[in-house]
Specification:
Layout: E1 14-16, E2 19-21, E3 25-27, H1 39-51, E4 56-63, E5 76-77, H2 84-95, E6 100-106, E7 122-123, E8 127-128, E9 136-139, H3 142-162, E10 166-171, H4 177-182, H5 197-215, E11 220-228, H6 241-249, E12 255-260, H7 263-266, H8 280-283, H9 286-289, E13 294-296, H10 303-311, E14 317-320, H11 322-326, H12 330-335, H13 350-356, E15 390-394, H14 398-410, E16 413-417, H15 426-430, H16 440-450, E17 456-459, H17 466-472, E18 476-479, E19 483-485, E20 506-507, H18 509-513, E21 522-526, H19 531-542, E22 547-550, H20 566-575, E23 579-581, E24 584-590, E25 593-598, E26 604-609, E27 612-616, E28 619-621, H21 624-629, E29 638-641, H22 651-664
Parallel strand pairs: 3-4, 3-14, 4-5, 4-6, 6-10, 7-9, 10-11, 11-12, 12-13, 13-14, 15-16, 15-18, 16-17, 18-29, 20-27, 21-22, 21-27, 22-23
Antiparallel strand pairs: 1-2, 8-9, 19-28, 24-25, 25-26
Helix pairs in contact: 1-2, 2-3, 3-5, 5-6, 14-16, 14-22
Bound molecules: adenosine-5'-diphosphate and iron/sulfur cluster (SF4).
Length: 684
């Protein structure tokens, strides 16, 4: 089936300065923690997107000088000539598929702590660096300004040498020196670079003109600019200075790449920005002020939403970071009339979290993300089956669904047995929680493909026992029976059940998601620190309960600092009137009362009353079936526990595990200890 002609406009070539993008699909710069430490993995990661039809594929932010190094974070680097060959890997790989390669040159100013180079960071005016490192940046003098201008020019020339088609000047995400100069909150200078807006824009204008002069004949110069910081008058605003800046620089860059600041706002999770195109309200004005093409983002995953952006004149190019991570082949699927096969981003920000954790990128929806070079995984291709053997997958949560789908793609005859009346496992329960509906895409994408496969048989309402499985005589058995929340309080704080818990009517998240009725004042003890505690608190509050959320950490849902959600979650919890008790742990329970101690002082400080008590501490594998099968292992060619049944974790981890199990079935690869390709630093 070919492309629906209504989408033809998305495939029109677009002139960007001296270069031409083959279509309107534009992978905007995004981090992946491959970068300068893993250049082969970086090149392979970007190449897959070019192969998948993205007309422009960009790097992550690329440091241009050691005086702005983002260590311990790991991005791109182009400090000098020696960095060029690794960029060549990326540009060659992208060009091979007919796409343009863009590089996001970046000077981080006092967003960088220079923990590697140990040079004092620079800022428009002296100030502590972003974050809490005990480091202050010095105010730049005129010589420094001239240096940074020169470093941009030199990096732009190196970019051209490395084969890039689009070179960025970057003033966004509250992360770059040029944006810092634009903001009166950071720029308290009294010279011609401070004070009036005209003066604050001067440095950016100079850098844009410098870079254009240096490489503008061969490369397009893109300007990445945050039009609004969502801080009201305390930051740039689309309705005032943001708009004025666009007007002042309108025709200088060859391309406007616009978004909102900071990263928390730009990459908002679906829990807080459920709709595609959520940035339009802040960026739509840009096209009215410039004749140059405009690219913008908004977690676009549907062809119709993209079409609407172009037709209504909001954007010229559809920018995507996360949608291109979840489905590197999104453009090709639209082009080939395979819209149903698009693996839509769920907005969970697991990708973002691993940038913050300085771990290579991964994605809940796309388990091959980041593994393209390391394990040779391709998002759309998988080795064919090596035998006619049948395979049984038990359990249809994210691990079982992904495993069954990939085994079917390999050509195996797959039987998928699920004890529940519907597919999805934890996804079906959790996607019903407040703000979590997008997670249903993990199930829906896989279910609709599985149901079309002639080599897959799905059995619902089928709780299999070890005897049932032996009787089926299927040689390969993958057990994906998931996990359940513990009722006994064991978790990070408690290696043994807290005193007094025995005999109490304790609720777990599973009980609540299965519809158990709570009564009166609800106490939720969150020793898990991801989304479950706060979403349950929200749910209970919405049901009209008085709710107290107790956590040993110093803030609610602490791990979501990595997914950029923590501040928003805490604000929502407080706005809902949920009582928040942080830095305290349970010591003892007596009916209707929890005694708690401060985790630092160990002082017994308070008693919290409750009518219902919910433990969100940790999960136990539901591995009884697997344990019962283990003594019979010699009857099977393959017997493996996968996903949460093997070790409870994120949905992303379960999908990955299911995928890895499918790839490694009847292969040389040891599922439990695969051999990765590793990039070894040269020791010359
Ligand atoms: P994961 O995240 O590892 O995929 P889930 O908990 O989401 O795990 O899904 C596990 C699924 O396995 C659930 O839908 C559950 O109903 C199903 N299941 C558990 N035990 C059995 C069994 N003995 N036979 C069939 N299905 C089972
Ligand atoms: Fe989207 Fe989540 Fe994948 Fe990131 S990890 S691309 S947010 S599905």
């Amino acid at each position: 089936m070919g492309r629906d002609s209504k989408y033809d406009i998305l495939f029109e070539p677009i002139q960007i300065g001296p270069v031409t993008a083959p279509n309107r699909f534009y992978q905007v710069p995004h981090c992946n923690v491959l970068g300068h430490a893993r250049p082969r993995a970086e090149a392979a990661n970007r190449a897959v997107k070019a192969e998948g039809g993205w007309g422009v594929v960009c790097t992550q932010e690329v440091e241009i000088h050691p005086s702005a190094d983002v260590a311990p974070y790991l991005e791109g680097r182009l400090w000098d000539e020696r960095d060029i060959p690794q960029h060549r890997l990326m540009t060659d790989a992208v060009h091979e598929h007919g796409a343009l390669a863009g590089i996001e040159l970046c000077y981080n100013g006092f967003h960088a702590s220079n923990l590697y180079s140990r040079i004092a960071p620079m800022a428009p005016s002296a100030a502590p660096v972003h974050g809490i490192n005990p480091i202050q940046a010095r105010a730049m003098n005129k010589r420094d300004i001239a240096d940074v201008r020169r470093w941009h020019v030199e990096a732009a020339k190196r970019s051209r040498q490395a084969g890039y088609d689009i070179v960025y000047v970057y003033a966004g995400h509250d992360m770059t020196l040029l944006q810092h100069f634009l903001k009166p909150q950071y720029n308290r200078r009294s010279d011609e670079y401070g004070g009036s807006l005209e003066n604050r824009v001067r440095f950016t204008r100079e850098v844009l003109l410098d870079v254009k002069e240096a490489v503008g004949h061969d490369c397009a110069v893109a300007f990445r600019f945050a039009t609004d910081e969502l801080m009201g008058p305390d930051g740039l605003q689309a309705e005032s200075d943001g708009r004025d800046i666009v007007a002042m620089l309108a025709e200088i860059p060859d391309l406007w790449d616009v978004n909102i600041s900071d990263w928390v706002n730009d990459s908002s999770s679906a829990r807080f920005e459920p709709n595609e195109g959520y940035q339009e309200v802040y960026t739509a004005f840009v096209k009215t002020l410039t004749s140059k093409p405009v690219v913008g983002v908004g977690r676009f995953t549907s062809a119709d939403a993209m079409l609407s952006q172009i037709k209504r004149g909001v954007l010229d190019l559809i920018g995507a970071a996360r949608p291109s991570i979840a489905d590197p082949f999104l453009p090709r699927k639209i082009d080939e009339g395979r819209i149903d096969e698009i693996r839509e981003c769920i907005g969970c920000n697991i990708c973002v979290a691993h940038d913050n954790l300085v771990a290579p990128i991964r994605c809940t929806q796309n388990p091959t993300q980041g593994e393209e070079w390391k394990q040779g995984w391709h998002p759309e291709r998988i080795d064919a089956a090596v035998s006619d053997d049948a395979v049984l997958v038990v359990g249809a949560g994210p691990a079982g669904l992904e495993c069954a789908l990939q085994l079917a793609n390999r050509g195996y005859a797959v039987t998928l047995a699920e004890s529940a009346p519907a597919l999805g496992g934890r996804i079906s329960r959790e996607s019903a929680l407040p703000g979590m509906s997008s997670y249903a895409r993990v199930r829906d994408y896989r279910e609709q493909l599985l149901r079309q496969k002639p080599n897959v048989e799905i059995y619902l309402n089928n709780r299999l026992s070890a005897e049932d499985i032996v009787a089926l005589e299927i040689p390969h058995v993958l057990v994906a029976t998931g996990s359940s929340w513990r009722r006994d309080g064991i978790g990070r704080q408690h290696s043994f059940p807290p005193a007094g818990i025995a005999g109490l009517n304790i609720m777990t998240p599973d009980d609540i998601m299965n519809g158990a009725k709570l009564h009166g004042r609800v106490l939720i003890y969150d020793d898990d620190h991801y989304y479950m505690g706060s979403t349950l608190a929200e749910l209970c509050r919405n049901q009209g309960h008085e709710v107290c959320l107790l956590t040993p950490q110093s803030c609610v849902s602490m791990w979501t600092e990595n997914t950029l959600e923590q501040g928003k979650i805490q604000a929502r919890v407080l706005s809902l009137g949920i009582e928040l008790v942080v830095s305290h742990r349970l010591v003892e329970l007596v009916a209707g009362e929890a005694r708690i101690a401060n985790v630092y002082s160990e002082q017994l400080e308070q008693k919290l009353t409750f009518d219902s008590l919910v433990m969100v501490t940790s999960r136990a594998p539901q591995d009884e079936l697997y344990q019962a099968l283990l003594p019979l292992e010699e009857r099977f060619k393959t017997l493996r526990a996968i996903g949460d049944c093997n070790a409870p974790g994120t949905v992303a981890a379960a999908v990955y595990d299911g995928h890895a199990a499918a790839r490694s079935l009847e292969s040389e690869q040891d599922f439990y200890a695969p051999l990765f390709a590793r990039e070894m630093p040269a020791c010359d």
